[in-house]
Design a protein that fits this description.
about 0% strand, mainly alpha, about 160 residues
Length: about 160
C-alpha cells in the first residue's frame, strides 16, 4: 500500500491495518490520528515514538494476540497471517523441536507470567529455541525490557510491511 492510500483510508480501516501490527489501542489510535504522513519513514517514526510510550497495559493487550513461538496462529486475520509468515523458519515437521518449544514456552510462562515473544522473522526454529533457552536465565526485571523491545521490533516490522 502506498502512503497516500493509507492516509486516505477511513479511520476504522486504517485502525484495523495498524491493529494487525500490534493491538495496543492507544498506539493504534495515535498512529491513525497523526495522519496524513508525508512518507513511509514518517509513519514508521511515529509508530516507533508511540511504541516507546507503551505502558504495561498496552504491552499486555498486544501480547494477548500473539501466538506462542512454534504454534500456528488461529484465525485468518492479518495478524495471524503475519505471525505465520514470520515463523516460517519453524519446521512443523520437526517433532523434537516442536516439543522443546512447547516445553520452553510453558517454562517461560511459568517464570515470567507472559508468553515468550521474540522477533521470529528471518530466524530458524533452532535459533528461536536457543534464544528462548537463553532468556529463561533472565530475572523478571531483566526479561521485561527484552520482551518489550521484541514486541516493538515486531510491530515496527509489520508497519513497514504495510507499505511494501
Amino acid at each position: 500500500m502506498r502512503i497516500d492510500e493509507f492516509n486516505d483510508l477511513p479511520a476504522d480501516e486504517a485502525e484495523a491495518l495498524v491493529r494487525a501490527c500490534a493491538d495496543a489501542e492507544g498506539w493504534v489510535r495515535g498512529i491513525v490520528a497523526a495522519r496524513p504522513y508525508d512518507d513511509a519513514d514518517e509513519l514508521v517514526a511515529t509508530a516507533a515514538r508511540l511504541a516507546d510510550e507503551w505502558t504495561e497495559a498496552d504491552v499486555d493487550q498486544a501480547l494477548a494476540h500473539h501466538p506462542r513461538i512454534g504454534e500456528r496462529p488461529a484465525g485468518d486475520g492479518a495478524s495471524a497471517a503475519a505471525s505465520s509468515k514470520e515463523q516460517a523458519g519453524v519446521d512443523p515437521a520437526d517433532a523434537e523441536l516442536a516439543e522443546r518449544l512447547r516445553a520452553g514456552n510453558r517454562a517461560y510462562e511459568e517464570r515470567f507470567g507472559r508468553i515468550y515473544l521474540v522477533r521470529a522473522k528471518g530466524r530458524s526454529g533452532p535459533e528461536l529455541l536457543a534464544l528462548l533457552e537463553e532468556r529463561l536465565g533472565n530475572t523478571p526485571e531483566e526479561e521485561y525490557p527484552v520482551m518489550v523491545a521484541q514486541l516493538r521490533d515486531i510491530a515496527l516490522l509489520r508497519v513497514k510491511d504495510l507499505l511494501l
